[in-house]
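Deliverable D5.2: sample structural annotation.
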Amino acid sequence: MGTNKTVYLAGDLVFRPGAIAIFDRLRVLCRAAGVEGVAPFDGQAGIESLPPGPETMLKIVMADRALMDRCAGGIFCIDPFRRAADMDPGTAVEIGYMMAQGKPLAGYTTDGRPYPEKVRAYRRAAWGDDLRPRVTHDAPVGSGAVEDSDGILAHSEGMLQNGMVEGFIHLSGGHVAVRDDLFDAFRIAIAELARRLP
């Protein structure tokens, strides 16, 4: 039996225009790194003809989970999603799921701003306000020094995304590659992940 070199390709890319072409390019980069890239679409044959709704969504969730179960590792785009500070929440769940399986993970992004700076930019654009020095003191001191006008802590200082997201990638032995070009960032991340696969 051969070594499993399949890698789950995850991120908000599935929602972007030209998603199939994006994943085709990512698969080429995977092959160049000596691994097989598996996109969420790969397990969803026949689902595209079903009507939107909760039953169809659950079929997609089960198909994606089955793909993650058979992959040796995962690589995740952690770009901000829908012009917000945070990444796609479904991708964050997938990071947690694969981390719980003890699989090696890697990340990549085109947005190298620290997470609190992403929150600051989002608040300015969406709400016209800014972050302020933390005045609410009922949260752990080490998790952040600024909060928004609602008193919600802008945490994860020094990280590119929520600390649980990036932290799980690091705890698996991985890193997050940052480049202005999505495919350049992916190329770096997949090469690093390929070296860590069993």
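Annotation notes: The first strand starts at residue 6 and ends at 10. The helical segments are 19-32, 54-70, 89-100, 115-127, 163-171, 182-196.
The annotation will be released with the project's public dataset once the embargo ends.
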